[in-house]
Write a structure and sequence with these properties.
The complex is a heterodimer of chains A (about 400) and B (about 425).
Chain A lengths: L1 H6 L22 E2 L38 E4 H15 L3 E5 L15 H5 L4 E3 L4 H13 L3 E5 L10 H9 L1 H4 L9 E6 L14 H4 L6 E4 L3 H13 L4 E6 L6 E4 L5 E2 L5 E4 L4 E5 L3 H14 L4 E5 L2 E3 L3 H11 L2 E8 L4 H13 L8 E5 L8 H7 L3 H11 L2
Helix pairs in contact in A: 2-8, 4-5, 9-13, 10-11
Chain B lengths: L4 H7 L18 H4 L27 H4 L9 H26 L14 H8 L7 E3 L5 H7 L3 H8 L33 H17 L12 E6 L6 H12 L4 E7 L2 E2 L2 E2 H4 L8 H4 L4 E5 L3 H16 L5 E6 L17 H8 L3 H11 L5 H24 L42
Parallel strand pairs in B: 1-2, 2-3, 3-7, 6-7
Antiparallel strand pairs in B: 4-5
Helix pairs in contact in B: 4-5, 4-6, 4-14, 4-15, 5-6, 5-12, 7-15, 8-9
Classes of the chains: A alpha/beta (about 400), B alpha/beta (about 425).
């Protein structure tokens, strides 16, 4: 942890972190945890700020580092991050259903029980509220639990503990107890998983004070955010997506940690700012191909930090493009998009040339039928149409 | 996997029916009711029936003789007396202060239940943890949180143990390992289970052992909570992993206005322990020495890594559920029945009877406590209210969680951030 803290440097006030520019030693963006490294020392060691291309484009990796990196699937990246943290900090432990002997229902904890033992990788009974609360109590007493919801939707059962205890205890205790808990799991609309396994809990949790929320979308940011979440002293909810676990990506061989509060510039552009996260990033990038062919130049930002929003990156983009499209998987009512729209209006109203458009999922329980399910979430064609409309 | 026969047998409640009267429909005898044999045999060794409430089992005379509580030394007795008097005087002062408009909101007083808090908590070390509910003032005091810190917290002052941010229902103290103070019943039990898990983890994974044994966690909660899912889920997990925890049920027979008997299919809460594989004990919660004896055993079990225990303390609150409760549903004869077993009076009589101290010594303890509580009120009165700048502090342990503002800096780096003038 010493390395991480020594590398945290406040961003120099005069040089806002420009999207896409990798020369600024953005120490807070990516921290490379080597003992000797100072922020900014040796550009080669610093992994450049995410000019990460999407799947299918140029090799997706921000690695401006010396070695080539290695390729793996997103769930393996999460696993790698978790293992690294568990090896370096013996207070990191995992609770969840089937995380131990079964290896995790999405294999994120595969092999961990053999490596670290049954107490550190704890197979819990099916009692979300109680084992999440157990995570809170353990965190208050010095451990750093990572609580897995087998599906994010199951964490609805843990809402009491997540809201009242996780989010609030640091405050109501007057700062006496910290809750360095990580709550993670797959959410989002999958492939015909049915309504209850297709939920987007980020919209339900976003009001909880004291909670941070991040969503990963690539192997690279998955590992970096996992590590950052574990090291954070705040309770962090890490949203993964059921359909992204097998996404291939290349990640650096060296250790790296990402910044929880930062957004990721996926594709710099000039005409319109498209804000998205998690799986919708890929629908956006797919739409971007079409849009580029039609002559548009969209700027795509994966907001990553769902709470709090990285208004700096978002704002810089809006100041440049003056048009905003939000593409999210949450439902229209009360989703992340709704809050983001509100935050943009509050902060960047003067820079907008057009009303903010927000494409969200339909306000319906996700139907089982494939055709209906496809109609529930935002598809690339809709994104293209929206940009066309915005840029008229 | 049965606990050592000694301890398990000791903790089997004797076979006896509950008293009838206005409180209960007649219940089947315990032995008959359970279809399957309970672990540890059917030995109903009445001479080890320490865990019997002579109030509850009114018909059972044999049981009444079970005053087999261990002798206490003079020092111990005076410590217990002082702690209970502190609890009582403090709570009475709370009522006064509430009606004088010094504290607000929901205030739940502990009058009458002092034997449970004192009986258990005075056996703990500083490293042991206590988790409570909204009726937590006295648990805080017993655990060692200074009366002035608790009173200041109740007054909402910045010098309160939680800087005024918690209030009556959220008492926390890290130095004293008081892990709350919870407003929703049952939500503290998993937290307590987690603290016990951490104790076990420290021992087994981090290899931090103490000659004293494992650090113990006590979870206090009421009869109403025993119908809540979190209670059962945690009994299961605690026994599954043999966590060093004691589940202490303060059964005061009422959940606001719902009698325990109207809410619970099987009102004998101690029986729910063996259902999960742990000993379940019933004890007269109005007798501090009886409680203390049971507590010693339960805490000892946890410390020796023998696993959790469920202790049902039958007790009574002399006041309403909270200061807002008109308390019209409880019958006067029930109230007077329990008032006659005031734990403080009972201990006082015991002390004088056994010549452990004189009446005047006890009186001087009472006077000392009154001074302590008066001083606590003065301190709280004189303390400042939290300034507005305190509002955003402590929301996050790492204030970077407030995010990066439009200017590129972390919001918390803005010097005006906590003044409430920064843009959040």
């Amino acid at each position: 942890m010493a390395a991480a803290s020594s590398l945290h440097a406040a961003a120099p006030a005069a040089t806002p972190c420009r999207a896409g520019i990798t020369s600024t030693p953005v120490a807070r963006s990516v921290r490379v945890a080597t003992a000797a490294a100072r922020p900014g020392a040796g550009r080669g060691r610093l992994v450049a700020r995410a000019a990460v291309a999407a799947k299918g484009d140029a090799p997706s990796c921000a690695a401006a580092s010396n070695s080539d990196g290695h390729e793996l699937l997103l769930f393996e990246a999460l696993r790698e991050g978790l293992i690294e943290e568990m090896k370096s900090d013996p207070t990191v432990c995992v609770f969840g259903e089937d995380v131990g002997h079964y290896g995790g229902s999405y294999k994120v904890t595969k092999g961990l029980a053999e490596m670290f033992g049954d107490l550190r990788v704890l197979d819990t009974p099916i009692a979300e509220n109680s084992f999440t609360g157990m995570g809170v109590g353990a965190a208050m007493k010095g451990l750093r639990p990572v609580v897995e919801g087998m599906n994010m939707g199951f964490l609805l059962l843990a809402y009491n503990q997540i809201s009242n205890n996780c989010g609030m205890l640091h405050y109501t205790s007057g700062g006496q107890f910290k809750i360095p808990l990580v709550i993670r799991g797959p959410g989002g609309v999958g492939r015909q998983l049915g309504a209850e396994h297709s939920q987007r809990l980020e919209s339900y949790f976003q009001s909880i004070p004291g909670l941070q929320m991040v969503a990963c979308s690539t192997a690279y940011n998955a590992k970096g955010l996992m590590k950052a979440a574990i090291r954070s002293e705040n309770p962090v909810v890490l949203f993964e997506h059921v359909l992204l676990y097998n996404l291939k990506g290349k990640i650096p061989d060296e250790e790296y940690v990402l910044c929880l509060e930062e957004a990721e510039m996926v594709r710099p552009g000039e005409h319109v700012t498209i804000l998205t996260y998690s799986r919708m990033r890929y629908h956006v990038m797919q739409a971007a191909k079409t849009l580029v062919n039609e002559g548009y130049d969209p700027e795509v930002i994966d907001i990553r930090s769902l709470k709090p929003f990285d208004l700096h990156t978002i704002g810089n983009s809006i100041k440049k493009t003056h048009r905003v499209l939000i593409v999210e998987e949450c439902m229209r009512t009360g989703g992340i998009g709704a809050s983001l729209r509100s935050a943009i209006i509050d902060n960047f109203w003067d820079y907008l040339d057009a009303p903010i458009m927000c494409l969200s999922s339909q306000d319906v329980p996700t139907p089982y039928a494939g055709t209906l399910e496809d109609a529930t979430v935002v598809q690339p064609a809709q994104i293209v149409a929206a940009v066309e409309q915005l840029c008229q | 996997m049965a606990a050592a026969s000694f301890t398990t047998a000791k903790f089997l409640a004797p076979v006896a029916a509950r008293s009838g009267g206005d409180r209960a429909p007649p219940l089947p005898a315990i032995g008959a009711a359970s279809a399957r044999p309970r672990r540890g045999a059917q030995k109903t060794r009445l001479r080890t029936a320490l865990a019997v409430s002579s109030d509850v089992l009114a018909g059972n005379k044999v049981v009444q003789a079970a005053a087999g509580h261990l002798a206490v030394t003079r020092e111990e007795a005076l410590e217990l007396y002082e702690d209970m008097v502190l609890g009582r005087v403090f709570e009475d002062m709370c009522a006064q202060m509430y009606y004088r408009g010094k504290m607000f909101g929901f205030v739940h007083l502990y009058n009458g239940q002092e034997a449970v808090s004192t009986g258990f908590i005075k056996l703990l070390n500083q490293a042991d943890c206590v988790v409570s509910t909204y009726r937590d003032h006295v648990h805080a005091l017993s655990k060692g949180v200074p009366a002035r810190s608790v009173m200041a917290e109740l007054f909402g002052k910045a010098t309160g143990c939680c800087r005024g941010q918690g209030g009556s229902m959220h008492m926390f103290s890290a130095p004293h390992n008081l892990l709350g103070g919870f407003a929703f019943i049952g939500e503290g039990i998993p937290v307590a289970t987690g603290a016990a898990f951490a104790a076990k983890y420290r021992h087994e994974v981090l290899k931090q052992s103490s000659p004293k044994g494992l650090d113990v966690t006590l979870a206090f909660f009421g009869d109403g909570t025993c119908n809540n899912g979190q209670f059962f889920e945690c009994l299961n997990m605690a026994q599954l992993w043999k966590l060093p925890i004691v589940f202490v049920v303060e059964n005061n027979l009422w959940a606001i206005g719902v009698s325990h008997l109207r809410a619970t299919s099987d009102p004998e809460i101690w029986k729910k322990g063996p259902a999960f594989g742990m000993p379940g004990v019933h004890v007269d919660g109005m007798g501090v020495l009886k409680v203390r004896e049971v507590a010693k055993e339960a805490i000892g079990r946890a410390r020796r890594d023998e696993g959790p225990t469920l202790v049902e303390c039958e007790t009574y609150r002399f006041r309403g559920h909270s200061l807002a409760d008109p308390d019209e549903l409880r019958r006067p004869d029930e109230k007077s029945h329990y008032a006659a077993s005031d734990p403080i009076t009972a201990l006082k009589n015991y002390i004088i009877e056994k010549n452990l101290a004189t009446e005047s010594e006890l009186k001087s303890i009472e006077k000392k406590i009154e001074d302590v509580v008066e001083e606590a009120v003065e301190f709280a009165d004189a303390s400042p209210h939290p300034p507005r700048s305190q509002l955003l502090e402590n929301v996050f342990a790492d204030p970077k969680g407030f995010g990066i503002g439009p200017d590129g800096k972390y919001r918390c780096e803005d010097p005006k951030f906590t003044q409430g003038t920064a843009q959040v």
